[in-house]
Design brief:
The protein is mainly α. Helices cover 79% and strands 0% of the residues. The protein has helices at 3-34, 42-67. Helix 1 (3-34) runs antiparallel to helix 2 (42-67).
Length: 73
């Protein structure tokens, strides 16, 4: 068995999972901050929140592209 390749896949999986979770939680936090009535510019924070959600979605779609064999033909 090729242990280095297994380690490479394990590290890539952990990094990808941490990235998706971090982007999603940052998006949720920025949405909550933007909903605060005392903020001076909630539009900027909400835009960054939507950007985080979009990047999270792109990461999920990239993972699906790598996993589904139909796309790699």
């Amino acid at each position: 068995m090729k242990w280095l390749e297994l380690l490479n896949v394990a590290v890539a999986t952990l990094v990808a999972a941490a990235t998706v979770v971090t982007l999603y939680s940052l998006g949720v936090r920025l949405t909550a901050i933007a909903a605060d009535a005392q903020q001076t510019s909630p539009g900027v924070k909400r835009s960054f929140a939507y950007l985080c959600f979009g990047l999270c979605g792109l990461a999920v779609l990239a993972g699906l592209y790598l996993i589904i064999p139909y796309f790699s033909k």
